[in-house]
Structures are given as C-alpha cells and as structure tokens.
Amino acid sequence: MSAGAVERHWGRDRVSLVECGARHGALVQWRRARDAGLAGQPLPEPPKEPEEPAPVATDPVFRNPLAGLFGGAASEE
User: How crowded is the C-beta side of 59, counted as CA atoms within 13 Å?
Assistant: First the structure.
C-alpha cells in the first residue's frame, strides 16, 4: 500500500472513530452492566435524568406607570 493510500485511510478511520466513539462507549458500558447482572453483582446506578431549571421569578415585565396615581387599580380599559 502506498504512503498516500495509508494517509487517506488513516484520515477516514479517525473521522469514523470520532463519530461512533460515544456509541461504542455506551455499548461497552451496557455490556459491562449486563455481564455484572448475569454474574449476580450489584448493578451500577443509572445516570440521573437532567432536571428542569427552576422557574424564574415572575415579576411583570411591563409596569403600568399610572398605577401609582390611581392606587394601583389602573387598568387599560
């Protein structure tokens, strides 16, 4: 095989490894957990689900500038 062919194949191989690395890692972890369960060992804790962020304070964005003049009972009607 020529040096140029080796370089082309090596480059494609590196790209493929980056693209499927996470899937391969997940498969390896799954197999380890499966084998541990089959061997009677305690299973690792599953990863926690991402939590929803806490709601932001609900201060009104628009403040009626006339509310102070009419005791806070001003409306747009």
Answer: 3
Q: Which two tokens stand for residue 41?
A: 């060992």
CA 20 to CA 14: how far, in whole Å?
10
Each domain of the chain, given as residue ranges in start order, spans: 1-47
- Judged by phi (left if over 0) then psi (alpha if -120 to 50, else beta), residue 40 lies in left
Cβ neighbours for 44, distance < 8 A, ≥ 6 positions apart: 33, 36
- With a CB cutoff of 8 Å and minimum separation 6, the contacts of 72 are none
User: pLDDT tens for residues 17-75?
Assistant: 777 887 888 888 889 888 988 998 887 777 788 888 777 766 666 777 777 776 655 45
First to last CA, the chain: 83
